[in-house]
Amino acid sequence: MNRRAATAACALGAVSALTLLAPATSTATAEAQTSSPNQVLIDAYGDSTTLGITCGDGHCAPQPRNAVTYLQLALAAHDGERVRVTNYGVGGTMATQLRDGTGNRRAGPTAGLPWRERLAGSPAQIVLINYGINEVMQNQTPEQFYAAETTLVQTARALGKEPVLQTSNPMPDNRLNARLAAMVAMTRRVAAEEQVPLVDQYAYVCSLPDWKALMSDGAHPKPELYRLKAEQDYRVVEPLVRRLLDNPH
């Protein structure tokens, strides 16, 4: 299957049941991060697909084999302990909630703070941002999503962080996936307008033959797909890490 056919299949695949995206607590630790001139800290923000939820036997829960963990392992293998990725994913959340500080407040001591305040207190140099699925489920408009992601990116950059946008992985349901494609288009638009790095997971996963077999339900990947997503993250993030390690401030 070529890339164009696979992408079409992504948008026109058979309908499958969607497991509701119930809020889940982030795996981020409450310990304050500290950085040194020869260390790079990365914060990963997003929904349940950042948190790392996988579903099976009618039960959905965060799994240790998720994209953030795989990214950490890949960076550590290349750059050692000088790089640390912290997972701030929270299930059931949207970009507007991250912006406004209205997400799951159990997800760390700063989770209830507005984005600017929260990020100002983080020593992370790189910030990953992954949203879109819950915007579809909560009937947000693409314009609302565009405004929220633009604010997230502009604020991060104003605070001296390197924002990296990620598009959501696709959803097997035709109708929902068509709406998700509109959100993905907004993420691509923000990345282009703000000139920030983009990991286009939606396009990548759509290019995989039989990608639906790698999904655990209507939204959450199986560990194998999380690993593949992490490889795409690594291709974009590692050059940023290398630049920071080679030119410490």
From TrEMBL:
Signal peptide bounds: 1-30
Annotated ranges, domain SGNH hydrolase-type esterase: 44-228
Keyword Hydrolase: yes
The keyword Signal is annotated on this UniProt entry: yes
Entries under Gene3D superfamilies matching the protein: SGNH hydrolase (3.40.50.1110)
GO MF terms held by the record: hydrolase activity
UniProt cross-references to SUPFAM superfamilies, sorted A to Z: SGNH hydrolase (SSF52266)
Family annotation (PANTHER family): THIOESTERASE 1/PROTEASE 1/LYSOPHOSPHOLIPASE L1
Name recorded for this polypeptide: SGNH/GDSL hydrolase family protein
